[in-house]
Amino acid sequence: MSNLPPNPFVSQPGANANPVQAFNHNQYAQVPLGQLPPGYGGLKDNNSNSPLHGTISPQNNAIQNINNFNQSASSSPAFNQPGLVQGGMQGSPMRPFPQSSQPLNQISSPSPVFVSNPNPYTPNYQPQKQINDNVPPLVPPSQHNQPLVNGPPLAASMPNPTSSSYSPVPPLNRPPVGGYGPSSINQYGPAPNTKPSGPQSLPIQHSTQFPGPPLAGPTNIGTSVPPVSRNVGPSVPGPLNPPYASPISGPVTNPPISGPHMGFSVNGPRLNALPPNSAVEARPVGLNGPLPPVSGPPKQFSSANPLPMMPSVSSPPGQPYLNQPVSQPGLNSNIGSNVPTALTPPMNQNIPVNQQAGPPSGPTGGPLKSNMQSRYPQMPQASYNQQSAPQQSMKYPQQYNAQGLTQQMGQLSVTKQGFDQLWGHHMVDLLQTRHILPEYPEDPPEIKLGHQFADSPNCSPEIFRCTLNKIPETNSLLQKSRLPLGILIHPFKDLNHLPVIQCATIVRCRACRTYINPFVYFVDAKRWKCNLCYRVNDLPEEFQYDPVSKSYGDPSRRPEIKSATIEFIAPGEYMLRPPQPAVYLFLFDVSQIATDSGYLQVVCDVLMSNLDQLPGDARTQIGFICYDTHVHYYSMGEGLARPKEMTVLDIDDIFLPSPESLLVNLGERREAVCALLGALPARAAPAPRGPAPPASALGAALQAAYRLMAPTGGRITVFQTCLPTAGPGALHSREDPNARSSKDVNHLNPATDFYKRLALDCSGAQLSIDLFLLNSQYSDLATLSGMSKFSGGSVYHVPLYSSARPQHVRTLQRMLTRYLTRKIGFEAVMRVRCTRGISIHTFHGNFFVRSTDLLSLPNVSPDVGFGMQLTIEESLSDLQQVCFQAALLYTSSKGERRIRVHTLALPLASTLPEVLHAADQHCIIGLVSKMAVDRCVSASLAEAREALTNVAADALSAHRLAQNAPAAAPGLPAPAALRLLPLYLLALLKRKAFRTGTSTRLDDRVADMCSLKCLPLEQLLRLVYPALYPLHALAPPAPPHDAPCPPRLHLSAERINSNGAYLLDDGECMIIYVCHGVAPAFLADAFGVSAHAQLGDEGRALPRLDTEPSALLHAFIDKLNDDRPYASEILILKDNSPSRHLFLERLVDDRVESAFSYYEFLQHIKSLVK
Amino acid sequence: MILAETVLFSLCLIDTGAVLFLLIYYIITLSDLECDYLNAQECCDKLNYWLVPKYIAHTLITFLLVTHGQLVLFFLNLPLFIWLTYEYFTIPQGNLGKYDPAEILNRGQLRKHLRDLMIYIGYYLVSFFIYLYCFILALLKGNPIAGSDDQIVTEM
């Protein structure tokens, strides 16, 4: 916060009494009208458009209640699946939404009207468990044993998690340890659909913060736990448990000092013995040769193959789960690769399967399979002493998984490793670990704050995440760790339980304007100290009032203090002009290619059926413009029986023929709008008028749209199908089709600044442009995307669109339906504040950075995320924690001004191992992919690829430095917190955006880059490393869940068994891959065909049959579809379909002609690690 | 068009002084942006507007010096001239100018620009005093009052 705005408040007694400037978010408020673009009509124009505007007054409470209800309801359709939703809770508002499960109660009280959790959690503060923050679990006394519970040994001795030894707290409801206090659970906990009254009665709800595990847990209670206990029992001798338990429970229960100090004594001396830092920094960055000779890795494989199993691992990891198919003799499971002895080379992969999982029913791997396997080098056989533990523990009810990584070391009895486990510092040798990918989704690493805030609710990791969960104290420490420091934020995510507050004054720091949050310090009852700038502020009188207990005195019971995500209904001083109405303008390309593709019919149909669902109030306006070589306007004003088309031929100097009737009120002129939507496709149809003009004057149409919309602001939706070649902003084709697979990719930069300039003008007028690119030929998305990038819009790309292909039509329909009906925030600004000493230096996403930390987002949608890179400017060593606060001020579609505030607090780290072990690998991947996109544009693709590779090498070098290991040490040790980094980086390098050597259309590449830049983390990860599930052995779900949860597999052909069926889910498309050896019974039950040959080459629909496998499959797919904006397209491929490459090319762990396999990539990284 | 030395150096002096003022204006504008007094779009519009005049001013000095045979001074100016030319012609097509409102607050560009400006100011300040020195020298050389005391002046 080095750049504090000019601060008029310090000199004034009451900051909030200063109406206009009190909110320095609102910079457009401070911009005089003269600075707004010429089309900006000023405030008076708005008044004519907005009959309902007005400031929010207390008398409006009744209306606001309704609004609150609607807001949260429409924003939260996904919470009908309590534990099932894995991460992202945004559901499409289309989904049926049970009113009874509405969790939001609004408590109206005289002065502060607020809406809060109906079930407030009163934090019972227990000083005896104050532990220093690098002791992992901070548990209530009744749960002292919890870290032990996470590990397999205890669980093995206690197969049933609901056994009486855990009676104090039912395990399913056990709160996650540490940073997420129970109140934060309440915040985000979805109200279970099945029992709507549940949340009120349960003390602690199921939490979506720990989304994946609950899936796995209860499912496995019945089935997989007993096998585990059988299998693990022998390998973990009973007597091990007590000694194992004692060193851990000791430090936890004891006063804190002993634990951390021992931790430092382990790490300290090593650090002191480190070589000077310069050795680290001097590592050459430019290593571009394909390093390991091709013959290298195979040699390694062959030498590594005969490695014997560690005797202690009697049960291979996936086995307990995979033993289930025994009960289903017809189905073979895919565990071949999981079973150690299977690896010796290709052919006998099935044998161990048979041993483990019963007699095979289908034929063993045919010629196709062996070919495939010989194509892909095998990883060496590894000892499982590290990996088997986590994998087995995955089978356990995952409520215990809050500790995430700490549970990994279940079977180790070595003291040091025990301590490592205790502090979460354990390592994985990447070269020796075959099953690096967790089979069930893991929770993001937990944030453990210092004792004072250990119980404070932190922001949900789905909304706010940092790449390092412990911020390095100094910049030099950060440099030493060589990890990127940044935050990813998904600010407008659909939440199912959002406390909404309306109060007269919003309490903010008078110096830095931070909103009061759970991490402030209360100096006394009347004053609070800002946690970002450390200024002591007065607490307003009414803040003492607790609306829940209706008593005065304890400010810490306010919802602002109890929730890290909160929404305020802004009083009048937060608006400069009356809240704008929802205004939508649609621009349709009707040039020749557009009419050929036939998209207009689809779009008009979807629009017509969703007119009622468009977010907005009675003031909502809508308009349409078509363009080919000319621009066609449609007047739908009063007195016109039918919409009237007006064509403007002069596209170089565009003007509006009758501005007042082009945008009409949707409610009043609905018939005209429907008539137009019905007539438009016919108007654009090619037949009667001869071929449409080939050129498309997009630039002129955009200028017209800007003029039309500038007085109000709103959303412009552009449907473009070809390169705009006429009028202003005309482009010419830059792509050389022959160079699509070449190493250096050019033309990733915009060709003209026209679209950027226009977007910036739009941004100033609170207009955002969304682009649907339905192109069938090169359309220079690199240039066109500028219009969305800088105006806060989004880009949707359906390549080679043709209405003749039903899958395209379905995709467009789903995309558009979600787009039209999702929540929208208008005239938004977002400011991210950081604790003093940290500043943001780079922003990623679609917006315009208007001043140092203010993002101008004319529209904000629930489907976009943002990334920010941070720098540490001053030493933070005297601080206890670092906080980030993102505040999003927006106008809801109902015309309310609202502020959504997210606050994240992170502890500090003073040593290198601490930093490395607290890294959040998923978040790093998210941030690094955005940085790489930037690098592609500013430098070159080759440089970006090199930088991506170096991310892994740098992190592992830093780890080697932290371990003080010799440079030539065997293996490739990695902190467990970073073990997936190489896997994901390799997958990222094989994304369309970054791949070389494979033919990739330039537009596809740029579209992929656009999505990497602005997708929320969870969708981004799914896109980068798609999930692969075995379908042939779907086990029926345990009662609490209604969908099966198969384990995730590595994306490698060796995991594909020739008698299995698999589902690959990348978020856009679900590919079901049916191998030829799959049991006919399964084919009949799931696909309705009796033989493999009867399946179509490219199925697009999954029949709903009245059989159990089919029901399970559909339940599973529905569950997968539940956490994404719109349902994915399904594609069924056979392993002999001509288009099976669609599936095979996603197997990113494997070698392709031009890119490394995972194992080769590891070797490459190892050669880079210094 | 050979000008007298005094005229040449007085031109250089005025030119450099103007550039110096312009650079200070740049710094003020950028600091305004840094402190949120100004939004990025406005700031960049202002700065880009003066980019070409600045470039022309420097080109003019370089051109004048080389046409008047002041080779030492010319070589002093040449690197900056080349740098400015390079900078001017490598602005990406998609950007709105050297100062792009969408980028200026990203990737520490603002600081980089401020640092560049400081270097420019230092450079122009030094050259300003060199021109001043040369100007005085030329004045004294051509002083009619000194008459025949040429050698005294040159020894100075």
TrEMBL record, chain A:
<dbReference type="InterPro" id="IPR012990">
    <property type="entry name" value="Beta-sandwich_Sec23_24"/>
</dbReference>
<feature type="compositionally biased region" description="Polar residues">
    <location>
        <begin position="194"/>
        <end position="210"/>
    </location>
</feature>
<dbReference type="InterPro" id="IPR006900">
    <property type="entry name" value="Sec23/24_helical_dom"/>
</dbReference>
<dbReference type="GO" id="GO:0000139">
    <property type="term" value="C:Golgi membrane"/>
</dbReference>
<keyword id="KW-0813">Transport</keyword>
<dbReference type="GO" id="GO:0005789">
    <property type="term" value="C:endoplasmic reticulum membrane"/>
</dbReference>
<dbReference type="Pfam" id="PF00626">
    <property type="entry name" value="Gelsolin"/>
</dbReference>
<protein>
    <submittedName>
        <fullName>Protein transport protein Sec24A</fullName>
    </submittedName>
</protein>
<feature type="compositionally biased region" description="Low complexity">
    <location>
        <begin position="306"/>
        <end position="316"/>
    </location>
</feature>
<feature type="region of interest" description="Disordered">
    <location>
        <begin position="275"/>
        <end position="396"/>
    </location>
</feature>
<dbReference type="InterPro" id="IPR007123">
    <property type="entry name" value="Gelsolin-like_dom"/>
</dbReference>
<feature type="compositionally biased region" description="Polar residues">
    <location>
        <begin position="98"/>
        <end position="107"/>
    </location>
</feature>
<dbReference type="InterPro" id="IPR036465">
    <property type="entry name" value="vWFA_dom_sf"/>
</dbReference>
<feature type="domain" description="Gelsolin-like">
    <location>
        <begin position="1046"/>
        <end position="1109"/>
    </location>
</feature>
<dbReference type="GO" id="GO:0006886">
    <property type="term" value="P:intracellular protein transport"/>
</dbReference>
<dbReference type="InterPro" id="IPR036174">
    <property type="entry name" value="Znf_Sec23_Sec24_sf"/>
</dbReference>
<dbReference type="InterPro" id="IPR050550">
    <property type="entry name" value="SEC23_SEC24_subfamily"/>
</dbReference>
<dbReference type="Pfam" id="PF04810">
    <property type="entry name" value="zf-Sec23_Sec24"/>
</dbReference>
<feature type="region of interest" description="Disordered">
    <location>
        <begin position="33"/>
        <end position="230"/>
    </location>
</feature>
<dbReference type="InterPro" id="IPR006895">
    <property type="entry name" value="Znf_Sec23_Sec24"/>
</dbReference>
<feature type="compositionally biased region" description="Low complexity">
    <location>
        <begin position="56"/>
        <end position="76"/>
    </location>
</feature>
<feature type="compositionally biased region" description="Low complexity">
    <location>
        <begin position="108"/>
        <end position="128"/>
    </location>
</feature>
TrEMBL record, chain B:
<dbReference type="GO" id="GO:0016020">
    <property type="term" value="C:membrane"/>
</dbReference>
<feature type="transmembrane region" description="Helical">
    <location>
        <begin position="117"/>
        <end position="140"/>
    </location>
</feature>
<dbReference type="GO" id="GO:0016192">
    <property type="term" value="P:vesicle-mediated transport"/>
</dbReference>
<feature type="transmembrane region" description="Helical">
    <location>
        <begin position="55"/>
        <end position="76"/>
    </location>
</feature>
<protein>
    <submittedName>
        <fullName>Protein cornichon homolog 4</fullName>
    </submittedName>
</protein>
<feature type="transmembrane region" description="Helical">
    <location>
        <begin position="7"/>
        <end position="28"/>
    </location>
</feature>
<keyword id="KW-0812">Transmembrane</keyword>
<dbReference type="InterPro" id="IPR003377">
    <property type="entry name" value="Cornichon"/>
</dbReference>
<comment type="similarity">
    <text>Belongs to the cornichon family.</text>
</comment>
<keyword id="KW-0472">Membrane</keyword>
<dbReference type="Pfam" id="PF03311">
    <property type="entry name" value="Cornichon"/>
</dbReference>
<keyword id="KW-1133">Transmembrane helix</keyword>
